[in-house]
């Protein structure tokens, strides 16, 4: 899996179990290898399976608001924290698989796991993570309000929950409206923005749990055959879908960048809040070849493909290409094998859709056999 992050003047590129720190100002680079887990000698057999070397893969990354800390989540349940100089601060194993993590206002870490629980980890105190709140479904993302008083979580069951922090047992509201799993939540200008497997982006007054506006990204897919292809694939798995799911959404200022499953490009929107209304303007479909591995949006749009690192600048309601750097040229000293292996996102995302099983027919057949045996 490939992940891009900006940290100050550095561009961080996460690949497998290491990351490359590229300083754009000094045009220097270095590689940081994520250490292995600190394992208890009496580890269980199930944990031994999780800790196999092939599971030491970076799956999620987050940075603190003040850019002082960096947290890395790995598939083997590792949670690793670095400071801004990339010195190791903490290296722990979570009891359960982690979906996402984020920093609070005071640089503690909130850990959202795949069983539906959120833990508070005060790594500076070297204390054990403590349970903060829980869902009845797999958590997919977590964020926090700018004031630090509210934590927002979303899950596979279409729910968005707004809780007080740190007293998360006080639930402020639920934001309900998505038809499929909610994969992303982000707050911008005091508006909660959510993205879902139903292909929509929704804008919320999260304190009241009311929807302000809604955008269907599939309305701007110019190649409808992509939607039809995905629909047929999911039909084979007995899942009825109407739209391409959102793979990633990033927000910077009033610009939103979105990628959809199977769609080779990035959709770009401009969003403006006026009083209690949200005005959405479609900017462009940015077609990219070869396939996009990952991207990041800040003062510029950086796109990582199999062959190039593309940089786009925003100019007059359009993103225009500024530079294109060869991956082989940029990272000549490193073996960037992940660039040749596109993550199979299809299987991961399609697994989030709920299946319908016809167990009634099986029951009726068993009942028929019992009746026949009695005769």
Structural class: mainly beta
Regarding CATH, which class? Answer: Mainly Beta
Average residue-wise pLDDT: 91
Instruction: Give the biggest sheet.
Output: 4 strands, antiparallel
CATH level 4 superfamily:
YVTN repeat-like/Quinoprotein amine dehydrogenase
The unreliable regions are: 337-343
What fraction of the residues are assigned to beta strands by DSSP? over 45%
Q: Helix count, per DSSP?
A: 5
Do you know the CATH topology? Methylamine Dehydrogenase, Chain H
Distance between the termini: 60 Å
Compute the number of strand runs: 28
* Morphology: globular
Percent of residues in helices: 10-25%
Write down the Rg.
Answer: 22 Å
In order across it, which strands form the biggest sheet? 1-2-3-4
Summed up, the domain count is 1
Protein name: tRNA (guanine-N(7)-)-methyltransferase non-catalytic subunit wuho
GO biological process, one term: tRNA (guanine-N7)-methylation
Subcellular location: Nucleus
Family: Belongs to the WD repeat TRM82 family.
């Amino acid at each position: 899996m490939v992940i891009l992050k900006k940290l100050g003047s550095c561009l961080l590129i996460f690949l497998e179990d290491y990351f490359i720190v590229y300083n754009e100002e000094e045009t220097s680079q270095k590689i940081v290898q994520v250490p292995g887990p600190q394992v208890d000698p009496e580890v269980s057999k199930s944990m031994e399976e999780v800790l196999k070397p092939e599971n030491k893969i970076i799956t999620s990354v987050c940075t603190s608001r003040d850019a002082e800390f960096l947290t890395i989540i790995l598939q083997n349940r590792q949670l690793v924290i670095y400071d801004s100089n990339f010195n190791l601060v903490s290296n722990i194993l979570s009891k359960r698989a982690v979906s996402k993590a984020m920093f609070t206002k005071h640089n503690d870490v909130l850990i959202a796991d795949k069983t539906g629980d959120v833990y508070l980890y005060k790594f500076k105190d070297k204390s054990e993570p403590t349970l903060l709140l829980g869902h009845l479904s797999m958590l997919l993302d977590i964020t926090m309000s700018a004031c630090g008083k509210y934590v927002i979580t979303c899950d596979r069951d279409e729910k968005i929950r707004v809780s007080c922090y740190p007293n998360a047992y006080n639930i402020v509201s639920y934001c309900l409206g998505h038809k499929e799993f909610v994969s992303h939540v982000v707050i911008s200008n005091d508006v909660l923005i959510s993205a879902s497997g139903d292909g929509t982006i929704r804008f919320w007054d999260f304190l009241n749990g009311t929807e302000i506006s809604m955008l269907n990204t599939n309305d701007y897919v110019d190649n409808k055959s992509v939607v039809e292809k995905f629909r047929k694939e999911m039909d084979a798995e007995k899942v009825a879908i109407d739209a391409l799911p959102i793979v990633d959404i990033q927000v910077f200022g009033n610009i939103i960048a979105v990628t959809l499953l199977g769609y080779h490009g990035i959709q770009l929107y401009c969003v403006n809040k006026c009083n209690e209304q949200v005005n959405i303007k479609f900017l462009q479909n940015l077609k990219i070849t070869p396939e996009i591995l990952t991207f990041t949006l800040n003062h510029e749009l950086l796109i990582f493909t199999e062959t190039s690192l593309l940089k786009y600048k925003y100019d007059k309601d359009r993103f225009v290409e500024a530079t294109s750097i060869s991956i082989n040229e940029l990272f000549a000293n490193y073996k960037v094998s992940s660039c040749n292996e596109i993550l199979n996102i299809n299987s991961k995302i399609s697994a989030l859709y709920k299946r319908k099983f016809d167990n009634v027919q099986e029951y009726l057949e068993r009942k028929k056999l019992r009746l026949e045996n009695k005769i």
